[in-house]
Structures are given as C-alpha cells and as structure tokens.
Amino acid sequence: MAQQDHINRFTLNNRYLFKGKLVMQTALHIGGGRVTLSNSNSPVVLTPEGIPFIPGSSFKGSVRSTIEKIVPNLPGNLRTCSLIEQNDVSDEDVKKARAQSTPICSTARQSSITKERRAITDKKAQEQHREQVLEDLCHTCQLFGSPFAASHIAINDLYMPKGEWNDIIQQRDGVAIDRDSEKAKDRLKYDFEVVPASATFDLEITLENATPQDLQLISVGLSEFVHGFGTIGGKRSRGLGACTLEDLSVYTLELNGTEGTTITEKERNKRLSKYLLAREREDKFSRKETGQDFLEKYINQLFKGVSQ
Prior knowledge:
This protein is of the alpha+beta class and 308 residues long. It has nine helices and seven strands. The chain has helices at 3-8, 56-70, 91-99, 110-119, 123-136, 139-144, 212-226, 265-277, 291-302; strands spanning 14-24, 153-155, 170-178, 183-194, 200-208, 243-254, 287-290. A hairpin with a 4-residue loop joins strand 3 (170-178) and strand 4.
C-alpha cells in the first residue's frame, strides 16, 4: 500500500450520513452500572434527565458482530478476523497468506506484531512494517477500527425523540443457574430493569472516506436490522433486545466521484461550496436516497457476476 494512500485518508473524500429510528420489538436492557438512584441489582443506563438511551458503542458493537457472522458466507474477497487471536501462526504462514491475497488480520496478531516492532531498529524498516500492518487489516477492522487504525464509522448515542418517554421502566426477576446441576442456585435471586417494548430511539451514523467494501459491509449490517434480525443490549437469550430499523435515509457527499466514475473540478467545487454554506445539516449533502434503495444497491454489488 503506497504511502500516498495513508496521506489521502486524512482528506475528506466522501461522507455518508445514515438516519433512522430504532424501534424495540421486545424489552431492552443495557446496564447502567451502580451510579444510579435505582435500587435494582441491574439498572438500565440513563441520561442525566433520567431517560433511557442506547450508547453508540453498544449499537456499533451489535452491527459489527452482525456483519462478522455474515462475511464468511459472502462471495468475493471480503475478510473478517472476528477479533479472534491467531498469535500461534508462524512467519511462514503469514507470508503464505499474504501471497494468496488472504493476509492474517493484524488485529488478530497483536502480540506477534508488538514483538516484531521491538525487534526493528531501522526507521525505514519501521515505516515499512507499519504499512504492512495496515495493509493486512481485514475489511471489518478497516471499517470499525482496530488498535492499528482509526474507525471510518461514528455512531452517536441513540436518544429517544422529544416527548417519546413515558417514564416507565419495568423490573424483572431472575435467578442464577448452577451450570453443573442445571438448577437454580440457592438464595441467588436478582432483579434487573428493562425499557419496555415499542420504545423508539433516533439513530445517526456518519461514515467518512468509505471504500466500496465499507459501503457493502455497512449495507449488509443495517439490512439485518431493517428486517428485524438485529439485536441490541444484554440478556438476549431471554428474548430481550429485538429491534427493527425504520425510516432509514442515506445522505451522500461525494467529492472524488464514486468507483469507476470521476467528477469535474467545477462539480467538486460546487458540492464543497454547498456543503460549507448550507444552514441545515441534511442540506450539506449532494444526494439523498431511501435506505432500501441504498442497501439494495451495495448488496447487489456483492453478488454481481455470481451465478445464482
């Protein structure tokens, strides 16, 4: 990977804004720790005003794990390490994987890479090693970030629309199970809080300097939530956290043209001027699409040329 590629990633080449509503089909539990006035053993996370919300990191983790389950079944060369460590592989295995264009993701080799870095003293060799580490990252680590590279995607905390909250938090009971006897442990009953089903949260995702692979991956992940197969929060084995993504819209700012196309300098300046001068956030973008159209476009790209 050329040095110029890494310089360009700090320049704004494109930006995608995804907006929609996450509607809970079942109750939701995202733990809020003990810094709360609740007397529950496991309270839900709340804003300073006492309203439940979904941390952006929680939704980001759910989307990532959803994508990681599907990537191995997709046609083409999309790769994911699923954050599974592979530090027992030999140098020969690493070289062989690179030669076959299926490198072992750097995130999965963190310990080995740390040792390699310590052994390199030459400055030029260190830079080459850094470039190789970035090039070896799998596509999910390139999109969602890793210890070696920043994420392309940012997900805001999900808050309830104004006037949506009905001040109801339910409390449910649970018991600890002894895995050996498969029976409830004596005197280990507990309770936990949940946000009732039908709660709605505003979702906003920003994706910058996206590659075609980034757009394909995020489309796969969001499609699962659109069709009700995504889940969020804890205690999912109890049926909690089922949700659907509704009213999804995608806003696009493209300053370098899409894959296989280019834009003139005049058109680029026009888009950039509109972006900088627009008063409303959504007006900054050069194109708006329905979520369904956007997802279908990039998922179809994955299967283009594949016999079905």
